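Report of the visiting student (M.T.), summer placement. My assignment was to run the structure pipeline on a short list of targets and document each run. The first record concerns Glycoside hydrolase family 15 protein.
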Amino acid sequence: MNNLNYGIIGNCQSAALVSKNGAIDWCCLPKFDSPSVFARLLDDEKGGYFGFEVDESYNITQHYLEDTAILVTRFSNGLDCFEVHDFMPRYYKAQNKYHKPPEVLRSVKLVSGKPSFKINYDPKLEYAKGVTTTYIKHEFIVSINDEETYDTLFLYTDFNYEAVVKGTEIELDRDYFLWFSYNEKLVKPNVKEVQLEYERTKVYWLNWMERTSEFKLYNDVISRSAITLKLLSYDRTGAVLAAATTSLPETIGEVRNWDYRFCWIRDASMVIKVMNQLGHKNISKRYLNFIIDLIPDKDEKLQIMYGIDREKRLTEHTLEHLSGYENSKPVRIGNAAYKQKQNDIYGILMDVIYQLLLNFRSDVDHREELWTITKGIVWVVNKHWTEPDKGIWEFRNEDKHFTFSKVLCWTAVDKALKVAGLLNKTSKIARWQLLEETIRKDIMENAWNEDVQAFTQAYGSEDLDASVLLMESYGFIDAKHPKYISTVKAIERELCYEGLLYRYKNKDDFGSPSSSFTICTFWFINSLYKIGEKERAKKMFEKLLGYSNHLGLFSEDIDFKSKRLLGNFPQAYSHLALIETAINMSSGVRKVKLKSEIR
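After the run finished, the structure tokens were exported:
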């Protein structure tokens, strides 16, 4: 069973997924959302990959170099052993700029004996459309696709070129390297340069982690999740991706396959809030600049999602020539959900603006722009909060009055009032307070179902929904309020199955969900902890951590029965919820670093 046993490497420009056997099965260059150069993840036959083939005597293990995004795959038969250290270069240059080229370096290190293997180098450019042909040149190996769209990929190595291209047996007698690049390099690289890139990248990640808050409990899983979230951020604009992949299905053989290589305002805002808790304010400030640049007009509505370079049109297409992950079609690029109306995004964005001003009050640029955005958000909420929408789960059929959307409209006004207080702007407070109370009263009257004894998915509905658990997180209701406790209990009865949560059980556009949305289980554990059932919450949390892959990474979904990972990977949403839950379990207690611990 394929359990998405992949590691992610990246440099905040793009990323690659490396299988537990050391094969690069997914990589898009030069950016996250560019066409793939390796896509075996989405088609075993056509997609292309870059791996190592060893005989059955070898045991293969994998781990990250501690506190870095450098992935180590170890091949050993007891006597003969070698390691592949995979990374994408990233390090500080000067004037607040970072070296982050569209390249992957594979440092092949001899550990012991005389290990032998074959290299399988099979790039398929442009999502494997057309024909990719690989040629041996004097200084490099080049792969070219010039049928539908022209594209090239360059491989530099000190291995024998013929052995690499033809996949003949190689006996390792020293350290070697494999370095593929989207661009032709001006100077042919060598082992010394590879080692220099390796050390600089290693130091970058160690320094980044040294600036990351540490906590008394679960610090190892918090650290790995923090690095994963950083890898899903895009330096050029400040966008944060939902995931590094497209079309990994929520359920094998079904059609819930979406492209997640975009920036959802909801997901990204939650990431920024968590990164603030971890002490990384730069990523927060870059993301706010991303948002500010998207709102040039005072009356322009926010989309629910954007391209990572601020694209507003994300037209959806299908790649019919690819068979899909385990034959789960269709393979999609682009995402039609960008057209949807979701009223909750305003509350989430206001919450981030408030958190940023609260935590970094004297160090936030664009304060006047943020106040303009704040006023604009309240204006939009006041005009549209009574309207139905598609909701957090992006239902593609009818609009409804979703409870979560209403709560987040309330949140938008609540946080706007707090921002007004921080900025000493008092003229609108009385009017905004009246709007806030009107929305609160409406929710308490219409979202509560007396028969179910819970706040339900939508007004007038009996269906339960995990998203209403966030009513407490956003400050709408106290954790000890009887109606909230009753809601948590009802959701456990109806939506909890074998230790995992359904998002909801009512049928949507594609039938009833058959896998668990990972973040929902984290939300429930958080709620359980807050209503006072701390020991049970802790046991559930530790059990859930056991469902990650071999490197501690989570996708979007988990199969209820088999517990295999499903959906796009790695999923920012899942890891931010993991961090938030782990911090709560630590009661927010940071570990004090001794001077000897500072790297």
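The longest strand covers residues 103-112. The domain at 6-209 is CATH 2.70.98.50 (Beta-galactosidase; Chain A, domain 5). I thank the supervising group for their guidance throughout the placement.
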